[in-house]
Amino acid sequence: MKMISILFLCFLWPLGAQETLTLTPEAILERMEQQMRGETAQMELNMTIIRPRFTREMSMRSWSRGEDYSLILITAPARDRGTAFLKRQNEIWNYLPTVDRMIKLPPSMMGQSWMGSDFTNDDLVRESSRVHDYTHRLLPEEQVQGFACYVIESIPKPESAIVFSKVKLWISKEHFYHLKTENYDERDALVSTVLLSDIKQMGDRRLPSRIEMVPADKEGHKTIIQYASGVFDAPLDDRFFSVQNLKNIR
């Protein structure tokens, strides 16, 4: 019986190794999304916007469930406190407490700056799907921060409302950490680079806790997001991500 078990395991091992080696780009991205976000995620984070003549800081909380639902609430500074953004399936809403006004964002605004940072509305309240709104291909592996990484080139599908003509992602092979992104325009010129680092324990998993967005053509400009804490896979239902709740969330 022991010999049969050993032979069985020896037979299965190369099949498992081959499966790992032949992961599709879509499967890699799905593993990365699951590792980075889970079924649901509740995060506390700080954002620092760096400019040649000033630095601006914000604190916020975020909640997400899959690709269809996400909510961001700004908690500081005082002048922005209560400002909130909601993605509910294909709709994006913004609540402005200073005028008690709810605004539905059109798709044309998704490429615009989010709260004056180097991130876009689509970066923070993602309307597009990393997996389904692009066609993907694997490029040769590279090292990033000491990790062997898959490199995936993603081209937006014609029907997708995405401002970049090409996106390249670096995802670690061992833990599926998202470690780097490069965004390109229609002339194949680099628009911005996103670097993810400082891997820490958050909730039940280890993740990059620092995200740095650097535009290619604006010297001295960058935006840094630092995650303070995270809880994953806690229940969040549809009612939490309602337009009515956007005004009341605290």
From TrEMBL:
Name this protein carries in UniProt = Uncharacterized protein TP-0789 domain-containing protein
Q: Which CDD domains match?
A: LolA_like (cd16329)
- What does UniProt give as the signal peptide span? 1-19
Lineage, highest ranks first: Bacteria, Pseudomonadati, Bacteroidota, Cytophagia, Cytophagales
The segment(s) forming the Uncharacterized protein TP-0789 domain are 66-248
Keywords, A to Z?
Signal
Q: Which InterPro entries match?
A: TP_0789-like (IPR033399)
- State the organism named in the record: Nitritalea halalkaliphila LW7
